[in-house]
Fold each of these.
Amino acid sequence: MSTHPWWQTTVIYQIYPRSFQDTTGNGIGDLPGITMRMEYLADTLGIGAIWISPFYPSPMADFGYDVSDYTDINPMFGTINDFDDLVGAAHRRGLKVIIDWVPNHSSDEHPWFVESRSSRDNPKRDWYTWRDPKPDGSPPNNWLSFFGGSAWEFDEATGQYYLHSFLTKQPDLNWRNPEVQEAMFEGLQFWLDRDVDGFRIDVAHVIMKDPDLRDNPRVPDGWERKFKSHGEYDEFLHIHDKGHPDNHQLFRDFRALLDSYQPERFSVGEIHIPDWDEWAGYYGEDLDELHQPFNFSLVHSAWDVEEIASRVEAQESAIPDGAWPNYVLGNHDEKRLTERYGAAAARAAAMLLLTLRGTPTLYYGDEIAMTEADIAPEDQQDPWGRNLPGAGRDGCRTPMQWDGSEHAGFSPAATATTWLPVTDDYSQRNVATQLDDPTSMLSLYRALLAYRKGSPALQTGAYRRVEAPAGVYAYERGDSVLVALNMTGEPVAVSFPGTVALSTQGDGATTKLLRPNEGLIIEL
Ligand code: GLC
């Protein structure tokens, strides 16, 4: 029996609920749709946990990341009974259920904010961050919204500005007020009592800010951006509006709450911090904060041996003793991996994700190599894409392609339109077609997932890079498995011991020659 907790040996699959399966015909996915696909998830594909992006009541200004009630289900997605059914169906098949928790901000339509903005002396005024204008009427400081423009919105009625790190419709909660923490933790208990197995925490590092709200300095000359472009936002060093050390106490409190539940619950935080040591600090000095801060480093990497290997090794050496690594190759905020790494690399990328040491999170649709959809600027649904041309995230959020029928089997045939268009190639690229094809991406994912499930070395064995010719990334897991990835489009002669257990390119694999873009799992 493995002594590793479930969240270390599992594979997480992210579901963007608007786009997974629509059962009502309104063109938007829903919770009964996820339940309907449980057999696919647990048995056909063979993942171990699902993470569902927000399904709470919400005006949908940021497609659910603007919550107007933390303890209910948006009628668009179903009912609380549908949620209980989903959890029951998942647990019966041995799948864990992780839900999204959005603590940094609520919707401006949350009753708390409606009260807070109603007058300066409302008891909930201090649940959000309100400040007077500067003498010239301008915002209290120079902080910018991640989605463009000032992070402050002036409220005519009460003559003050409120803070919103994201949209004006997403006011930041003031976690320095203990009543906020209490109310938000009650929300967590509501879901823990409904047997959810864990939380993914939205923008976890943004929650606590500088209590004095000092201006952010401008970036120094020659400063290099570490993440994708955010326009004007990139002109400042965000040292005061996020990443405050007080986040750590908050996560210790959060973890204590989680740890008061049995069986063991899990947390993974969305933490975008380029400094590895600061990032690793979110595990907690005594591993008493998040189980994992999401590791997005491969999302921002080129498909290049040295770049990828250096990021893998940076994580391996940054994490505290006893902490568990993790990897992400895509999510609802990033371009599809077929776009970032290129379609030719997608098979080896699947092998990379599922053979490194650490918990992998797989984004829905990547298992059939869904492509980034090209959504015209005038059709952009994503508010970020509307504010900042090129930043739109719709392209990675299109409906799951289940089969070759109308709407790709995502919505019932009679549905007028789906909320985002199904990508053009759906009649060839879909689950049903790929299930019948042993050479498909889906068949590769199934084989990799099945292999990993049966391989203690892949699940928990140590990582050690081994020498290989230029263009090849090779590493051992434990002392019985070697992974070799040809990250070029050329054949490369190699000389590995052992026997091939699985190749990304199917039949004909040998330990002496890697075909273009081929990845091998070799048993030593
Ligand atoms: C996170 C979410 C993203 C959302 C933002 C604001 O980055 O992943 O989708 O827009 O937070 O909540």
Amino acid sequence: MIGNQGKIVLNHLQRAIAAEEKQGCCNTGVIGGFHLFLKGILSRLEQLEKDGDFNVLKDITNHYKDWSPLQRRQALAHLRRFIEEHEELEAQGQAPPVYDSLKPVNLEYGGPGISKQPQQPKPSDIPPASEPPGSDKKERLTRPTPPRSLQFLKGVGPERAKLLAQIGLHTVKDLFFYFPRRYEDRSLRRIGELKDGEFASVAGKVVAGQIARGKMKVVKLSIEQDGRLVYGVWFNQTYILKQFPVGTPVIVTGKVRWQQRVPEIQATDIQKAGAAQPAGIVPVYSETARLSSKVIRSIVQGVLDQAPELFPEFLPPEEGKRWVLRAQAYQEIHFPRSLHSLGQARERLVFEEVLFLQLAVARLRAGVQRENSPQLKGGESLVQKFFANLPFELTHAQKRVIEEIFRDMANTQGMARLVQGDVGSGKTAVAMAALLMAVGSGYQGAMMAPTEILALQHYQSLEAAFNPLGLHVVCLLGSQTKSERDKILAEIAYGKAHVIVGTHALIQESVQFHSLGLAITDEQHRFGVKQRTSLQTKGENPHVLVLTATPIPRTLALTLYGDLQLSALDEMPQGRKPIMTRKLTERGRSSLEKFMEEQMEKGRQIYVVCPLVEESENVDLISATERFESLQERFPNRRISLLHGRMKGVQKEEIMAAFQKGEVDILVSTTVVEVGVNVPNATVMVIEGAERFGLAQLHQLRGRVGRGGEQSYCFLLSDAKSSRRLDVLCETQDGFKIAEEDLKIRGAGELLGTRQHGIMELRLADLSRDGRLVEQAYQLAQKVLAHPDSYPRVWQECDQFFSLEDIGLH
Ligand code: ADP
Ligand code: MG
């Protein structure tokens, strides 16, 4: 029996599974990797149920990363069964009522201003999950926190409570968070002022009724208002005629169609006039088969007066006066008095939602002291030598960003900086300069990359650049043998290694640094916030530099990386030609292949990227293996290699090295080449099944070409008739524009691959539209972080809003 906490954990798992499946089982359903998420879930469950049987979960957790998407899909099915079984077990005991106070609240991460005293029960304090049936009432009287189980609300009862639970509504607070999907304006209107297409309510008297029979029975009531007529129209609802006979005064609501002489209202509601009916602006909720919007509306209306108690104001008066009072906002978002007050309520709630998210993210770093970092300013001569050896002149942007970084590194305050630079803008050179500054000051520098391929590539370029300067560079990967690893670990621990490159392997416990002064994370968006913070806990407050190519719109950056300073690498190295991008259908394949031949004839190299590794029966995708074989047939004289994530590290290394050296003409691969890979002689990127990829991912993939002086091309193969995403990609190469579009098309959650699950569970805020509110929240968040003691209630409420599980970090 794992109780309420367990249920919540399983619920999160369920959502993460959905996200992972939606993204094609690429281990990206959760930021930082689905397998790491599973690890977190596993340890939570083990805590909750000491002697539970979690073998299935354990097994999947251990191997998920290495499986093919097909195997993963099967594993997810097993996981679903695992959840069901646990839920069944749970159901056999009487499920306990749900208490507000049992929401998971993270205690270990107590942020500034939060007392470390547990204010909420720990898992172990939570009452046992099984309670004798019928004990609810008695329990209710004796518990310190009264349950807000919905069942006891007026008009709910056990049946409806169950239906509500099915849509995730367990507590009164949940009801408040169940925001209306839209609103209907039911203020009464004159017939003469109705407009075609609008939604309106009209009062009048029924003067005639008829049924037109065709495929469907169309019921039409003629309603008269001061000598003018309007028709109310229903489909198949003949009882309307009986219920509202001629002479009845009614109010009818619906969508207006006015194409003939008499306007029609396609009615969604009709009431006898005079009956108590909601007037003004009325909320419409997402409904289920057995739970109508109307029912939900009346349940919500019944709890409105609990808002002041549930949502106390947390802003100090001087901040608060800019906004509607909190409780009032929660009432008005459901039952607004006017469109104006609805707008104000929404603003207040968006503001606070974003504020809490920003604080929750910032708090993740709270454990890390940002004082006493080493002053790193002794590397000037190494850096100059490095610059002198570069085959190119740094761009202005590179110089500026490097300066910003050096300024931070010279400070004991500790750098926490995010460098945003579009693909190909030259982030590696910036990182190298920072590493040299650290090493020249007598410290080690580490750089973590999300994939082995990228880590290896960095290793090679760092070695090539740093060896001549007398530096020792090592590379730590998960796939190394024990003896290799032990040797490298020793070199890191004794300080023989100056610069350490690696994958996640770097943040494992066994890695001890001699004197880590700088921790760089490349392609940050591939890691969770937790992982990036793990690397920085390795040394004694190393400086932290984070690189990302995913252009993050400012609003999102402020929200998710509010804890970091931003540097923009907003200039491309000179001489880059725009990549010509075309959409192609299957019919265009033969001319594409001709074109590929021409390019290879000129000595150029080609990437062909496919969505999945193995053909699966139900997913109609071209697998990389199959494409590899057909290309071999098509180009028998060309050197073609296959690369995918399931290969061993050494194997990948060999293939990448061969491609880099120009010994391979066509590299057929899965998305393992997505981030960072740099082979300037490759000029053609062919993306199979392009509609399967996200916009940001496509942009990343395209960024693999156009890295040298030659004209480069990107072909998006897709049989999708129209795709806004692919069009956007053909239109522009500006990563920021693409990200903004992506944000508009898919919403912030999906942009980060976390829609169903994690950090972007923003219920109201729309980061693509609410920029101003995001900025305002950011301002306040900064104040709260700087003077936590002045804002005690903000932290309290933030705790209630985003728990650790909510933000998807384990
Ligand atoms: P990204 O920002 O995507 O990580 P890289 O650092 O891999 O980009 O750089 C892309 C390519 O551009 C590399 O081949 C690199 O050597 C080259 N490069 C970097 N800076 C410049 C520059 N200032 N001028 C010309 N080429 C540059
Ligand atoms: Mg890079």
